Amino acid sequence: MYGMEQITSVKNNRVKEWASLKQKKYRNSTGKYIAEGVRLVEEVIASGASVEAILIAGDLQSGRFDKIVNGAHSKDIVMYEVAEAVIEHISDTKSPQGVIAIVHRHEGDPALFIAGKEKPLYLVLDSLQDPGNLGTMIRTADAVGATAVFVSKTSVDLYNPKVIRSTMGSLYHLPVFEVDLIEFLPQLQAAGVKVVGTAPEADRTVYGYDFTQGTALVIGSEAHGMSADVAALTDAQITLPMPGQAESLNAAIASSVMLYEALRQRTV
User: Fold this and answer.
1) Are residues 94 and 30 part of one domain?
2) Same structural domain for residues 27 and 68?
């Protein structure tokens, strides 16, 4: 179909390079990452992301991959028909769906992006370590219509395969940047954005904060919250009221509650 080249051996040099992208150092050195699964690869193609190749294993006559094949063909993306063993060798999952995209990382300029934005709502993540949490938080930011997400360079790698899967395609719906927060937060403030941090000991709750102004909501790491250096740069700090007996909330859940409060205030 469409003259796809076939690759059957895991010893193929291209396969070796693609499999290496499961490691952060090779993602960094090549500027590429893996996106896998039918829905996610469909999102990659639809987004217009720069794709090096799409690898497909399985029955191409079943119709399961038609949207991917037609989309890739329309955008002149190179496709390979590969053996199941090749997919399994490259995949980061236990039960691969038979399709993988090799994608070039997007390297936009966050300083240029924030210029001139009117009353933006940003999610800022400081030293998040759990890939599932990071992906979920990007999905929530997408769901509430946030302007962008900024992820600290001390967080889990944005292009970790588990993060990519956990975003469920939201990575391709809104801008997501990796930044040095100590350098970047003052740039947000200079652009008229209020930087509000989250801390359990804060005096003000999320329900008493005005999210209708340009806001960057900072969520700290799962174990330690915001770093001291980041906390020192915030304009205000807020917390979630917890009248029950729970000691704490998962970072992804806490960010969801706060983002939806921001959405409520902006839509009433």
Assistant:
1) yes
2) yes
Q: How far apart are CA 148 and CA 142, in angstroms?
A: 8
- Same domain for 150 and 183? yes
- Do residues 170 and 141 touch, judged by C-beta distance below 8 A? yes
Q: Do 151 and 258 belong to one domain?
A: yes
How much is the pTM?
0.94
Closest CA to 213 of 104, 101, 117, 78: 117
Whether 80 and 151 share a structural domain:
no
- Kind and range of the H or E run holding 47: helix 38-47
Chain segment 10-55, per-residue pLDDT in tens: 999 999 999 999 999 999 999 999 999 999 999 999 999 999 999 9
Q: Which domain holds residue 133?
A: 110-267
Rounded Cα distance between 239 and 261, Å, is 12
State which amino acid sits at residue 32: K
- The amino acid occupying position 241 is P
Bridge partners (DSSP) listed for residue 219:
125
| Residue 181 tokens, joined | 């927060």
**Domains: count for the chain:** 2
Residue among 93, 109, 90 at smallest CA distance from 101: 90
Q: Which residues contact 86 (CB under 8 A, 6 or more apart)?
A: 7, 8, 9, 10, 12, 15, 55, 57
